[in-house]
Amino acid sequence: MRDEPTCPRCGGSLHAPGLWTSAWQCDAHGPVAPLQPLAKPGPECLEHVRSHAGVPLWLPQPMPTGWLVTGYAHAGDDRAGAVATVVACSGPAPLGGAADLLLVAESPGVGLGARLAGLPGPDAGAGFDSGPAHARLDAAGHPTPLWNVETHSDNAVYVGEAKAAWMWVILWPAEAGVLLVENLGLEDAADREGGIDVTYGALMPRLAAMVGSDRP
To answer: Are 104 and 85 in contact (CB under 8 A)?
Structure first.
């Protein structure tokens, strides 16, 4: 498991800021927002990401029956704050079996959402929203249109925009997609005052494999 920041677009190692630049550098993608290692999901992890968030931190409200929060992630540094956040949830799939959900909010060009979805990125690509929306969900009290983006993976990927940031809704397996999105309401935990009642599970193996962790 990695314990150093990595590139949000490819997962590669980064060169830390130095004498000549204040940016983290990827050999393949140049200056990037560093993707921080994961920690065990829980209240402390939530508060850490919340305190750094410069984009929304989307939490399902209410949580689908039987679902748990299984991880948080963010990309950014102390200088700029978090320009991308991830909330991971896991639970029973509507058609049976287990399912995973990633909710990503990010500034344009970060590339984390596209990477987690299995797309070249850094964003969803031109024309993805040229037709009618494929789904809608309530994000912080606002109906938010989402467009399905095809990938070559066994997932369902929806992309939209909320609060001036990209919103990615990524689900595994693909069959879980439409049924969950149709009934999903989101709260921006970055704007929430006071405690948040969240039920946690173990760190999502899928997220740990893609991002890396600073804890076993």
So the answer is: yes
For the segment 33-83, what is each residue's pLDDT rounded down to a tens digit?
999 999 899 999 999 999 999 999 999 988 999 999 999 999 999 888 999
Closest to 164 measured CA to CA, from 26, 68, 55: 55
User: pTM for this structure?
Assistant: 0.94
Q: Are 105 and 56 in contact (CB under 8 A)?
A: yes
Give the per-residue pLDDT at 192.
Answer: 80
Of 38, 65, 33, 72, the residue nearest 189 (C-alpha): 72
Does residue 216 fall inside a structural domain?
no
- Residue 10 in domain: no
Alpha-carbon dihedral of residues 50, 53, 59, 61, nearest 10 degrees?
80
Tell me, yes or no, whether 19 lies in a domain.
no
Domain of residue 160, residue span: 38-209
Query: d(Cα 103, Cα 36) in Å, to the nearest integer?
Result: 17
Are 103 and 86 contacting, i.e. CB atoms less than 8 angstroms apart? yes
Given a contact cutoff of 8 angstroms between Cβ atoms, the answer to whether 2 and 213 are in contact is yes
Tokens standing for 195?
């405690």
Quick check: bond before 122 cis, omega within 30?
Answer: yes
Does some domain include residue 95? Answer: yes
Mean pLDDT computed over every residue of the chain: 91
